[in-house]
Amino acid sequence: MRKIISIILAIVVGVILWYLFLKPQDYQVNFKAKAIPGTIFESVKAWNKGFDSIVPVDYISPSHFKQTIFVNDSVHEYEWEIKPVHDSLSEVQVNIKDLDHSINNRLAVPFSDTDFEIGSRKLLLDFNDFLNEHIKGFNVTIEGEEETFSSFCACVQLTTSPEDKAKGMMANYNFLNAILLEKQIKLNGPPFVEVLDWDLENNSLTYNFCNPIIRSERLPDHPDIEYKRIFGKNAIKAIYHGNYITSDRAWYAIMDYAKENNIAIEKKPIEVFYNNPNMGGNELEWTTEVFMPIKESDE
C-alpha cells in the first residue's frame, strides 16, 4: 500500500512540476481560419505592425512561427501552429505564455477566467476579424503547369521586404519607362518581377523589376539598368486578383499545390502585371499572372 501511495504521490508531484515549470504554454487558443497557412502567416506579420512595441515575427516556417506582444507590464509570446484542412481552411493553434507572470497565470487559470485569458481571446478575435477583412481583398486561382514567356528585357534590381515589393516597383516604374522612352525603345509586353532570392527567415526579397523591350542598338547605358533575356521554363501558374502589395499570397498557394502534387519547385516566382496601380480602380479587377518554376529533373 505504501508503495502504491508513493507512486501516486510521485505522479502527482511530477504533474504539478510539469504544469508549473515545463508546460510550454500558460494558455492555448484553437480556432479555424478561412485561409491557407501562408496567408495567415503574412496576415500575422501585418497585424503585428499595429502594436506600439514591434518585435518582428520569429519565422520557423509559414505554418509555425512566434510572435511577441507587449501587453501593459507584460511580455506575451504567441506561438502559432497552423494545419491546412483544405485549400481555403486551416486549423490554428496558438500557445500563449506570459514571460513575466507565467507561474501566477498557471496557478490562476484552472480556477477562474483570468484577465490574461480574456485579453488573449480578445486579441485573437481581433486578429480573426483582421484576417477575414484581408481575404476579401484578393483571390487566387491555380491554373496548373504552363511554360513561362521568353523575352529580352530591361531590369532594375531591388532588395526590399516582401511587403514593400510593390513600393519598390512603383518607385522605379517611371524611372525605367522615362529612360527607355528617351531613347525611343519600344516596349514588348507588360512589366514583370523576377524573384532572385526570397529569404523568409530574414523577411527579405531580392528581385528584378523589368520591362520587356524590343532589342535595339540605342539601348541607354545606365548603371542601374541591366539588359537580359528571360528564357521560357516549365512552371506552375496562378492568377492573382488584388493589390500587388499582397500578390505573394499566390506564391504560398502555388507552394501548397506543389507539395500536394509532389512537384519540386524553385521558390523564385515570376509575376506579370496587367494593370497600372496609378490608374486606381477596383483592386479585385487587377490581374497578375504568377509563375513558380518547376525544378529540372537533373537538379
Overview of this protein structure:
By secondary structure, this protein is of the alpha+beta class. The chain is 31% helix and 35% strand. It has two domains: 119 residues, START domain (Alpha-D-Glucose-1,6-Bisphosphate, Chain A, domain 4), CATH 3.30.530.20; 154 residues, Regulatory factor, effector binding domain (Multidrug-efflux Transporter 1 Regulator Bmrr, Chain A). A hairpin with a 2-residue loop joins strand 4 and strand 5. Helix 2 packs across helix 4. About 4% of the residues have low confidence.
Please give the alpha-carbon distance between the first and last residues.
66 Å
CATH architecture of the largest domain: Alpha-Beta Barrel
N-to-C SSE string, H for helix and E for strand: HEHEEEEHHEEHEEEEHEE
In DSSP terms, counting alpha (H) and pi (I) runs of 4 or more, how many helices?
Answer: 6
Name given to the CATH homologous superfamily of the largest domain: Regulatory factor, effector binding domain
The strand count comes to 13
| Overall mean confidence score, pLDDT | 88
Calculate Rg over CA atoms: 25 Å
Extract low-pLDDT stretches.
12-22
Helical fraction equals: 25-40%
Task: Describe the strand arrangement of the main beta sheet, using strand numbers.
Answer: 6-11-13-12-8-9-7-10
| Largest β sheet strand count, sense and barrel closure | 8 strands, antiparallel
Spatial shape: elongated
Under CATH, the topology of the largest domain can be stated as: Multidrug-efflux Transporter 1 Regulator Bmrr, Chain A
> What top-tier CATH class of the largest domain fits best?
Alpha Beta
* Strand residues, percent: 25-35%
Structural class label: alpha+beta
| Total domains | 2
